[in-house]
Amino acid sequence: MSDCRRRPPLPACVALLATLLLGACASTPEPGPTTRFDPVGYGGGDAQGARTLAVSRPADQRTRPGVLIIHGGGWDDGEPADMEAYVERVLAAGWVAINLGYRLAPEHTWPAQREDLHAAQQAIVENAARWGVDPERIGVLGYSAGAHMAALAAYEPNPRTPPPVVVAAGAGPFDLTQFPESPIVRKFLGGVPSAVGTQVYRDASPLFKVNAQVPPTALWHGTWDTLVPLEQSRRLASALRAVEVPVELHERFARGHFTNFLLDEDDWGEIRDFMARALEAPR
Fold first, then answer.
1. Where are the domains of the chain?
2. What is the DSSP secondary-structure string of the chain?
3. Which of 95, 98, 239, 242 could form a disulfide with 210 if both were Cys (CB 3.0 to 4.6 A apart)?
4. Tell me: the pLDDT tens digits for 28-74?
């Protein structure tokens, strides 16, 4: 994984690309009337702190599936607003969008982020009636570092809450043991393997959480991604297939790490349909 400091930070790249591409693109779905709740602090946080959930839902009274949305930014940058295009797509699919804010490195190193994921999952259960969300029909969606966290939320969920039923993860670093010299990963995990121990790198890697009980997983990755290698998604897909967990990997030709963030309607449609099979399956 390259050093993000040599590139524009993810939020800046996303904003620029969204202006250039999404502004002129008619494929982004427009949601119908929606209800937005005031941000909720969770796990001891408050609405002004890092631990927040911003919830939006279609404006009716029907209980719906929900999707926990997780932003990227190398674990030390980014904010829920970066995922607003995904919030709109989730709403257009008819689901409740739950946009996560979490504590960032280096002030908060692993496993603080796992604690935040588990606390957020508990908050969803506690607020399910208010938000009109079915806590047993929760999917998780993220990009880049957010994809890494989405996979962790699904593969190592809060043991006291219903587990997610599906995960969608774009361009995620799923095996952090492959980045022992990365300054980004070092900042996230608190040091190099020789300092913090190789087990910390394994513990924070979704690849090593895979088993036959993890939920179906949709992956997408640009073939020209020089920040997070495509092999990361290929290896995760292979591990899931080995234990017969349903998985789709969409390799997006000639997309880099930042351009891959901007899903077109065809690719999003395939991911949405994959998620819908789990979120809307008869119970």
1. 32-279
2. ---GGGS--HHHHHHHHHHHTGGG-TTSPPP-SEEEPPPEE-TT--TTSS-EEEEEEESSS--EEEEEEE--STTSS--GGGGHHHHHHHHHTT-EEEEEE---TTTS-TTHHHHHHHHHHHHHHHTHHHHTEEEEEEEEEEETHHHHHHHHHHHS--TTSPPPSEEEEES----GGG-TT-HHHHHHHTS-HHHH-HHHHHHT-GGGG--TTSPPEEEEEETT-SSS-HHHHHHHHHHHHHTT--EEEEEETT--TTGGGS--HHHHHHHHHHHHHHHT---
3. 239
4. 445 578 999 999 999 987 665 689 999 999 999 899 999 999 999 99
